[in-house]
Amino acid sequence: MKPTLFVLAAGMGSRYGGLKQLDGLGPNGETIMDYSIFDAIRGGFGKVVFVIRKDFEADFREKVLNKYIDHIPVELVFQSPDKLPEGFTCPADRVKPWGTNHAVMMGKTAINEPFAVINADDFYGRDSFAVLGKWLSQMEGKTNQYCMVGYRVGNTLSESGSVSRGVCATDNNRMLTDVVERTKIERIDGVVKYKDENDQWVAIEDNTPVSMNMWGFTPDYFAHSDAAFVEFLNANIDNLKSEFYIPLVVNNLIKAGTSTVEVLDTTATWFGVTYAEDRPSVVAKIQALVDAGEYPEKLFK
């Protein structure tokens, strides 16, 4: 059975001010997500599931899904703040969804095979989907063995300012031991550095793996998430800004010895529009990949 690609797209409407401005960055108006779907198809994925907000379903079907339907099976699931376990009520003032791992939990009804999780608006590159697709294709029937594509931090920086990244620590077998979110990483005088808890700059190697929210799971991850979410809500339900992130769940499973997460190396360069000023360079990078023959001029004819 081919793995499924699960695309976290519930935040898109708010970030883009509605789907009509879904940003065309490729030579024929392709979005970053178009490139991810294209790369996933050639990386051996058999289905795409999108998690979105229910209020832009009609728009999403018309502007996004229609172009993929002849190329790969697609499904929609929906995230909203009131989708909570039995016994919990969403606070009336809560506007934000509950974060990336809550979005992942919405896939439980649609996904019964090994699956990848990606952000809708990150450009991950062809090699990462090839590496992840190959790994997941060998995981049918297995449990508690997950993976993460570890980008080399030097391949993920913005020229326009500092970035946030989950900096990963691994053991000798490339198994993840820890992910620490560093909110300020940039290249200073040719060296990659992050600001630590004491406001000091700490240098790290260019090839240090970082998480760009590109994960590989088997369906048992949903049950772990359900249990972890109950714990999270017991502690955080009244904090209107609290979010239930994937690294939180993954870290707890690793620390408990329940699951392993293999960090897969990729030569791919990640990019995205972190700042408005990043847009021209992203357009140029995509055009360069098209010119080099990595992608056709038109993706979904």
Describe the protein in words.
Helix 2 crosses helix 5. The protein has a domain of 198 residues: Spore Coat Polysaccharide Biosynthesis Protein SpsA, Chain A. It is globular, with a radius of gyration of 19 Å. The longest helix is centred in the last third of the chain and has 16 residues. The strands form 2 sheets. Strands 1, 2, 3, 4, 6, 7, 8, 9, 10, 11 and 12 form an 11-stranded mixed β-sheet that branches. The chain has 8 helices and 13 strands. With 301 residues, it is α/β, with parallel strands linked by helices.
Topology record:
Elements (H helix, E strand, L loop, with lengths): L3 E5 L3 H5 L15 H11 L4 E6 L4 H12 L5 E5 L21 H6 L9 E5 L2 E2 L2 H11 L8 E8 L10 E8 L5 E13 L2 E5 L5 E3 L5 E9 L3 H16 L9 H10 L4 E6 L5 E2 L6 H13 L10
Parallel strand pairs: 1-2, 1-4, 2-3, 6-12
Antiparallel strand pairs: 4-11, 5-13, 6-11, 7-8, 7-11, 8-9, 9-10
Helix pairs in contact: 2-5
